[in-house]
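DATA SHEET
Item: assembly model
Revision: 1
Owner: S.N.
Input lines:
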Amino acid sequence: MSVLVKRLMMTTTIRLQREPFDVNAEVAALISDRTDIGAVVTFTGQCRADENGEPIAALTLEHYPGMAETEIARHADEAQARWPLLGVTVIHRYGRLVPGDGIVLVATASSHRQAAFAAAAFLMDYLKTRAPFWKQVEKASGTAWVDAKAADDAAADRWAAPPRQREAAK
Amino acid sequence: MSVLVKRLMMTTTIRLQREPFDVNAEVAALISDRTDIGAVVTFTGQCRADENGEPIAALTLEHYPGMAETEIARHADEAQARWPLLGVTVIHRYGRLVPGDGIVLVATASSHRQAAFAAAAFLMDYLKTRAPFWKQVEKASGTAWVDAKAADDAAADRWAAPPRQREAAK
Amino acid sequence: MKVLYFAWVRERVGKAEEQLDPPPGIATVGELMAWLAQRGEQYAYAFENPKVIRAAIDRSHVRADAKIAGAAEIAFFPPMTGG
Amino acid sequence: MKVLYFAWVRERVGKAEEQLDPPPGIATVGELMAWLAQRGEQYAYAFENPKVIRAAIDRSHVRADAKIAGAAEIAFFPPMTGG
């Protein structure tokens, strides 16, 4: 499923797919024909060969079709409301992946670097805790569902208050 | 000039060059043959078509050969001391660039995303304020040296205290 | 209403989705989980600890006290582990 | 010692580097800037506001009160604008 919205000068691309993604192609699409972008941040999440220290052979990602796209789009909108972004791309894979495979790509573009960094970190924290995806790992002992991490919830909670309140609270 | 150091399981690549860089090739080199990397963050700084609202035709980057490499390597070491990184790449161009050209690439790899995000932001803040590079822009009114920005100094100052002290100060 | 199950909730229930018509007394997501838990061994296992189970109504996250009246699609799943 | 100039300091001085032998009384980077400023119109212009000029000794950043004794290479430049 693919959503492509051109809004004023902002481009949002959201895709859920089984296929691998090409970071360079996605960044090229994000910045093509634009000379107002000063900063591009990409985050690539990859399948590691271990889960909590135990070797794994593969990772299978289950998702909630329909809701996953909606949740990601809502958070992309939220990122655009918080920071002066010129483009956002989120690609999340599902299905069976092996160590070294890319799982998720977030790319953000802005005139200045702080907005691009903050928005990419924000989107990743939300994808980890709010986007309806579930990971199952294949280990020597069998398959197991990955437990949600308290550290991921804490990371997402950083963004709960709007930026102005967070600044004032420091 | 090129520095390539393999240290334990950490790879540091630092290059200053006139030529364009290829983000995909640099990321591929950073993660090649590894399955312990869960997160890769890239930052690409690009030449915009304006400087403080005024159109520019080009940007010329002057640097201090010898010192620039040393300063970048020192900050890459500092990043590795602060966060559990598995790889760092910094490529900074010099010479004449036109709008849309890449200026700088920072790529960081780690098992987990927070370290990769923080190290990339740290390296960019330091490159902006401590690496011996100077930008000159070509405008309709002639050439002008870009002024250093107070906001960049403030961003770099965030990292001045070691992480433990910063946490305690919150 | 259509009820969907994901990840280990789906595995325990033994199906990915079903059409259900809970009795009128079932007003909230929490009550729906309690009602589901009584429908048999597999449901009892899936919903044995309802506090860890997340829910969505018509593809939006909701809490256990959310009203189910008018819902076309309700989903139950473990805490998310994407990204 | 070798003295290097970069960016607008280089443009104002009119050269990128030179070999200099300051008198023995010149002990610090700040004193070296004051001595340079007296060497002619171009130097006076380059060092008219020494507070904004940054310095490096042997390729490490130093402050104006740093001692220059033993330095092989001293560089003067505006605040950096890389990245």
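QC remark: The mean pLDDT of chain D is 97.
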